[in-house]
Amino acid sequence: MPIDQHGDAVLDGLSIRALPKVSLHDHLDGALRPATIIELADAAGIDVPETDADDLADWFAEKSDSGSLVEYLKTFDLTTAVMQTREGLTRVAREFVEDLAADGVIYGEVRWAPEQHLAGGLSLDEVVEAVQEGIEEGEDAAESSGRDIRVGQLITAMRHTERSLEIARLAVDWRERGAVGFDIAGPEDGFPPSKHRAAFDYLASEFFPTTVHAGEAAGLDSIRSALIDGRALRLGHGVRLAQDLEVVSRAGEEVLVQFGDLARWVRDREIPLELSPSSNLQTGAIEAWGTLMEDHPFDLLYQLGFAVTVNVDNRLQSRTSLTRELALLAEVFEYGLDDLETFQLNAAAGAFLPVEEREELIELIADGFER
User: Fold this and answer.
1) What's the predicted TM-score (pTM) here?
2) Which residue intervals define the domain Adenosine deaminase in the entry (predicted)?
């Protein structure tokens, strides 16, 4: 299914880009416009590998396609470097929201780690305030162009540092001012959620929702820790949960699968999986199954009834959009509009919003797909 010059694709005669969508797993420092990076870097005296926006986009895509999460994460050294001032953070956040709205997203959650943006002398509160200002500017800009979008912050702690409890308190402090949830990110293997149990205990005591990166660069133990130690209401990626599924037999299109206890728990409790197909290929998250999109266990998980959602992870590094991810899946697995609608309804149901607002979001999606 070709993506046109406007980043759109057509399914069953309808524009995928125009369909109402929900984005749950989208990193702020992985969504910068290449031209913005060049401008902010020039103002800050930071060297960039390419001074042309298209060439810089190519550089990010090439460096990110390594098959290793550790190598993939190195590209963020440049993006975070230009996000150390209030002006830079606000601009990046504003453009983040504008780009989501242009892609048909009506609700999004942006995850980012405040502790990575203090080199310019700002405090934790000041960087969160700067990002919130940009989000609100982006929402206003979208509204003025005829698009409605709401974006909430997922305040994130880096799992290889020792600041998770401090960041958890920061998230709770901002819960009425834009923060909707908490996450841990960074190198997963060797840094399980259990190392941050104090932060998760505090968040649980405050009834503050968490999503945890798990099952991307590490396996079932990481997912188990996310659920038990992190009290995760969603799994960031969670793709390696498929390792807890054993295909016993195949007869034509009929597949008999044996569930492990962990997989059955996640499926039966409808814990959303924040799957990011292109990113999962780039980081080697699906290497146990193959290296092509058709090898991704997305369809297996979907057909078995897991609450799968579709996400971009990092739009810049994967040179993608939510429209593109949906188009890729539709082409590879022959999905129709009903399937794409299911993915959006799953995401809406898993959004960190009050139930009344989730129900409203579900109605907007249903109405949009019906039209």
Assistant:
1) 0.95
2) 20-366
Q: Is 123 exposed, middle or buried (0-12, 13-18, 19+ CB in 10 A)?
A: exposed
Asked whether residue 256 is assigned to any structural domain, the reply reads: yes
The whole-number pLDDT of residue 122 equals: 98
Q: Which residue has the higher pLDDT, 325 or 66?
A: 325
Instruction: List the domain range (segments joined by +) for residue 235.
Output: 10-362
Number of structural domains the chain divides into:
1
Distance of alpha carbon 153 from the chain centroid: 12
Active site (catalytic) residues: 216
Q: Is residue 262 a contact partner of residue 220, using CB atoms and an 8 Å limit?
A: yes
- For range 74-94, the mean pLDDT: 96
Closest CA to 103 of 213, 20, 10: 20
Residue 87's contacts (CB-CB under 8 Å, 6 or more residues apart) are none
Q: Is residue 248 part of a domain?
A: yes
Average pLDDT (22-38) is 98
Provide the pLDDT for residue 4: 60
Q: Which of 71-85, 230-244, 295-309 has the lowest mean pLDDT?
A: 71-85
pLDDT of res. 63:
87
Residue matched to tokens 């090898």:
295
Q: How confident is the model at residue 186 (pLDDT cuts 50, 70, 90)?
A: very high
Which CATH number covers residue 158?
3.20.20.140
Does residue 336 form part of some domain? yes
| 244, burial (CB in 10 Å: exposed 0-12, middle 13-18, buried 19+) | buried
Distance between terminal CA atoms of the chain?
A: 22
